[in-house]
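Teaching assistant here, posting this on the class forum so everyone can see the example we discussed in section. The complex has two components, and the goal was to see what a joint structure prediction looks like when all of them are supplied at once.
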Amino acid sequence: MPNPTAAMLVIGDEILSGRTRDSNMHFLAGELTRHGIPLGEVRVVSDDHGAIVAAVNALRAGFTHLFTSGGIGPTHDDITADAIAAAFGVAITHRADAVALLAAHYDRAGLPFNAARQRMARIPDGAVLIDNPISTAPGFTLGNVHVMAGVPKIFEAMVASVLPTLVGGPPLLSQSLRLMRGEGEIAADFGALAAEYPDLAMGSYPFTQDGTYGTNLVIRGTDGARLDQAMARLVAMFGA
Amino acid sequence: MPNPTAAMLVIGDEILSGRTRDSNMHFLAGELTRHGIPLGEVRVVSDDHGAIVAAVNALRAGFTHLFTSGGIGPTHDDITADAIAAAFGVAITHRADAVALLAAHYDRAGLPFNAARQRMARIPDGAVLIDNPISTAPGFTLGNVHVMAGVPKIFEAMVASVLPTLVGGPPLLSQSLRLMRGEGEIAADFGALAAEYPDLAMGSYPFTQDGTYGTNLVIRGTDGARLDQAMARLVAMFGA
């Protein structure tokens, strides 16, 4: 079986308008890297039914897993669950187990379990619920699509619920070397080394510190011994 | 002419691996909103030629403008300019004006203008250079695609160079109301109001403060008088 891959779909006008700065992408990227399911693509789309359906269908076909964030709350602009159902061509209903979870939650809180709150129990047919230890309203997994909340604390808790259930590949390891030399100075030798190690990904990331250019050289791969070997070569080239 | 729209393509393994947290998307989203060119979609892809070409061609066809960030430095993993040339089916060469800019820059800095640095003068045929007041190496505009650096300070300076040259639509205005009430409590009335104002976008964004749920209600649109009217209705509904 080939190693698993992942994509992410961030859903929400508030990200695209610049009102809210997304943090879920960075969080998920780190978690997936540690779990050996490299994140290959991210898309951000607005609260638009057609845009969500098209992105879901493109990404679920191209990657082992698709993780979505946003649009599963109680308000009229929360349209993700319906879009997922449409993307898969399945029905969506108020599901009994989700209704029971939410009814108990609002009962404990002394709040009415009104129509808006009941909306959060609408789950596409065939989905498995994802636990929400923060605010109860569940996410769900349908096929290879994991549908989660946009609120960072809830998103992170749902990722913690889902990830252990997925088969990871070998974790992506990385080593980096920080140099106070510009990229243009080290590019030729670094590029030659990268060509010698086609099984490793080598990237260079410039920065400035006190007005001086520096570069972080990063080597990524799944074979620790090969990483050690390549890093020893880098250190010999450029000094520690 | 219909109002202009925009998409963004973030290019870089370092974002997808979780090593680097992207900040350019949030910056560009805010600038475009102020300029009246709403950001409709963002994609993040890895340093992979085929992935970049496919995303560029999909997004430049779907939006008035496409802004890219990342992959235009001197190292082997900087492959954006070549991918853009391939996407448009045009040649890419060391262009004389870009060579001259960079040669003068490295001459002033007393650094060799080596092959890696010369690589940053490779520009697809037909492109217009984008000024880089920070580190000289230019971005470029080809057709409706604006190709910019990934380093945030340089990206931001390039956006400042490009945006005033683009025809903006009416700026997207927004007003928000912060309530210490949960989304589930206000959803029905808020949804009914949103249905009355189909020309405005209304979104609700939950938060917690000291363990209590609150909601920011946001109204967006281009007609200030309509926004004022809808906000007055909201305040009457829920209190200031």
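For the discussion questions: The radius of gyration of chain A is 22 Å. The mean pLDDT of chain A is 95. Think about how each of these relates to the inputs above.
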